[in-house]
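Section 3.1 - Work completed
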Amino acid sequence: MKALIIGAGIGGMAAAAALRQQGIECDVFEAVKEIKPVGAAISVWSNGVKCMNHLGMGHIMDELGGPMRNMAYQDGKTGQVMTQFSLKPLIDEVGERPCPVSRAGLQSMMVDSWGRDSVQFDKRIERVEETEQGVSAYFTDGTVAHGDLMIAADGARSVVRGYVLGMELERRYAGYVNWNGLVAADALIAPLDQWTTFVGEGKRVSVMPISDQRFYFFFDVPLPVGLEENRATLKDDLKGYFAGWADPVQKLIDALDPETTNRIEIHDVEPFDTFVKGRVALLGDSAHSTTPDIGQGGCSAMEDAVVLGMAFADTQDIESALQAYQSKRHERAKDLVLKARKRCDVTHGKNMKVTQAWYDELKQEQGDNIMAGLKETIIGGPLG
């Protein structure tokens, strides 16, 4: 049995690993000539780390994961700590740590774990054809690949999604712009073992420790869609958006490199239930594109892969396995998208009275409520 894997990102490589565990041959196709991830890093929560362990790639998390032992929220203007707590109780309860990692490092090591020479790059899918015997992928370079099934992990702007659904979906602008990148870890900005988030005015500034003594940082600002990006004024722009904010925020802006800082208008896609058509299945962002507000986008793709592998462990009948995958994933995936959307609206001031109430709650928070929410999300995954 041969599977065509469309996309060599986190979801595609996780799917390839899961299917290989079931003895299924996989051909992996990636649209770009060279993987250049969107976003500097990714927060892989405990459910994602469990998935990576299950897929035989836990060593990647060990190598790339930062020492995120604590969590804190601080007032953006004054810098005053609103809440600060250890994540150890959460880790003890769910049985695994969270791992913020370099996105480029993660994708590169997942490709290397598979075998970089076995991934075909510069293969952008154009259309899909399906028969009772199998599936064919037609690429824009004129080549064609044939397999028994197709797993489409071709991202939020998925080409294959249109084939599966029979229609195209519009992405929904979530209302804010995110700047992200990597800087040297600096205790004057935040503790080196802590996820620190500064909040205020519906805006957010956050740093997470990753490997090699670096911080992953991001800035969120509610803005209209379609504003022009200008790297030459990036620091001045951020200084304007965060005028009067605390010294650590200013130090972070001073430390960043505009040339390596990403600017992303955040979108998601309205959840839908159909992930499968015949021998073709959607996985990852192609099936459930989400905002990053609960840190579950990459984790959800990893969960997809684990469930896909489990489905083929139960049966080698392709259509039955894919239907089982869909039935076990669509509600969980929808729940994560909607949770992220709800958190997005609260965090980014869609209704400032609600956002201010959240700020007030943070000042009373001991960590228990936040960790309970994180635990609920984590244990809802396929590996508990």
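Second construct:
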Amino acid sequence: MRIRKALTTSRIPTALVATTLALALTACGGDGDGDGKKKTGGGSGTGAAEQTVKLPKLDGQTLEVAAVWTGTEQENFKKVLAEFEKRTGAKVTFVPAQDPIINFLGSKIAGGSPPDVAMLPQVGAIHQAVEKGWAKPLGEEARAQLAKNYSKGWQDLGTVDGKQYGVYYKAANKSLIWYNAKVFENAGASEPKSWDDLLTTAQTVYDSGVTPFSVGGADGWTLTDWFENVYLSQAGPEKYDQLAAHEIPWTDPSVKDALTTLAQVWGKTDYVAGGADGALQTEFPASVTQTFTGGDQPKAGMVFEGDFVQVNIGETDAEVGTDAKVFPFPAVGDAAPVVSGGDAAVILEDSKAAQALATFLASPDAAGIQAGLGGYLSPNKAVDASLYPNDVQRKMAEALIEAGDDFRFDMSDQAPQAFGGTPGKGEWKILQDFLKNPKDVEGAQRKLEAEAAKAYGD
């Protein structure tokens, strides 16, 4: 079995960061500012950013930036690009991309019109872009910003064969469960600390007349996040690293244990809104909004996903910290899991303008703008936490920075995109099939191993 050695993340116990996050979330049952508005003093999420990095004048130059972001997330990022335009005179066009973004970029490159910069959501995609000769190394100015503002772990995630290619502009804590506070209050449910507690809480919510979980099964990546959190906590960091590198097969007993545990939710009658068929027709944004609409009788009481859930909660009448609350994904094994993800800016067409944009995105100037708009976390340690719009977001950001390199990166995002990042194929499709038939644990394992072996070239 081939061992992937390109990825160089920290190999650390996750208990420390899990404890930090748990304490952070416990400390923020509501917005400490009272009015839900962000604190002032460090800049503004509406376009006024402190200028800590000098950018060149680029009048008349044009740039295209591709990303898979849609909706509010895309609109917020466009505000960051608008600030770059204002400060440099360049004209930047956002290019909507489709998953898998590597395939999208391949078609653009084959057609002779690649974007100048792409926001890549998988570590594996960065490595593929380098292997294909598409990605260009970052220049001195961008590297200087990374060295100044980022921990080594986040720098390493964007490094291939000793060269820096990626700027991790956006981070995600993917170990959170959000809940409708009114549903919990009516049911007499409490925030769980362990997996067994979670099952008890789910039954309490069910007994009150509300379906416990909303699952966005139409988007296979949400299912990989479910698996990774259970697996990391139950099997432990060492096994997690081995499976992520395909050093152990998906037929390993540890995978069987994790899938069996998942089936305690996915296979429980009436625990998932709409049942398996309904979940497989529910896209991620709808999985969030249906949890926080309908007053105290929503379609579900809880939804699992990362900090970015706040963007979609913002499309409802619910207030984060009061109507919509959050707790860390509970411990299945000895420690609660902390799985992180992120999106990195990678240069495809090298130019003064593209390098300047990478430098800007590596600075606190850019991240500070989007921080103030909500639904976003930055791994940039120079971003003033007061810019985040509420206490929940601020505490998450502080916990992320305090953790330093103490995290595990999303497993499917480390995999070759054919296995871990393609709709309708690989891990995404097999876990969708497992959601529909969670009794077939061994069948799912065999399919996962066959697809992984093919994608990793074993």
